[in-house]
Each structure stands twice: as structure tokens, then as C-alpha cells.
Known about the structure:
single chain, Jelly Rolls, 4-stranded antiparallel beta sheet, 8 strands, 27% helix, globular
Amino acid sequence: MRKSVLTAIVVLLPVLAPVATAQSYAETVWTQLQAAYGSISDGGDYTLINHVIGKLTESSSSYWTFPLKAGEEYFVMAACDEDCSDVDLYVRIDGDIVASDATADDVPIVRFRAAKSGTHQIEVEMFECSNQPCFWGLSLFEK
């Protein structure tokens, strides 16, 4: 019985190791999002709309759409794992950029007031990633 349990552990180890690594990268991103929100929210009354966590290779993007309301203030931030040194954010409606943070950092932040209601697209661009893929996270809040 001991031999079969040991064999099962040895067989599953290569399968479980990437899952454990992915989990730790996702936890790193989550921790960064929480820390960044705490330091820049100014005690504001922001309501969470959505959190997204994913992974990207360098020079690739992920696109997400959200229905936003005209006149409302929004706060979008992203973070990435320790292998990423630059991730960027772009918010668009009807193809036009309404807010962006493309500075060379790994915690982009944008605040904006929606000029019109409708489906807004948020692009997360992985600009620099030293050990691919890099994990990233996005948080969208409404004030």
C-alpha cells in the first residue's frame, strides 16, 4: 500500500507542480492589486465591478468589455507577477482611447469619468515579460 501511494505521488508531482506555481503567481498578482488599491483609493467609496486574473506573453494583449454609465467615475488598475516589469492599460469606447496608462511600470492605474454610456473595452498589454508567460490581474471599480 505504501508503495502505491508513493508511486501516485511521484506520478502526480510533475502535474501538480505547474498548478502550484500558477497558484503562487496568481496570489502574487492578487496581493499586488490589494496593496495598490489600499494605497491609492484615498478612502474613496469605490464599488468593485470586476476582478480578472490571466496570463500573457510579452507583446500580447487581453481584451475585456464592460458596460459603463455616462457621468460615473471609474478606477481601473492592473498588476503583474515578478517576471513582468511593464504592463499597460487602455480604456476605449467605440475604438477611441478614453483613458490609458502606458508608463514603464508594473502597476498601471487610470481614473476617468465615462463621457457616454456603453460598452467600454479594457486592454491589458504585457509590454515586458522576462519569463513567459507572465500573470496579470485587473480590477475595475465604480465610484
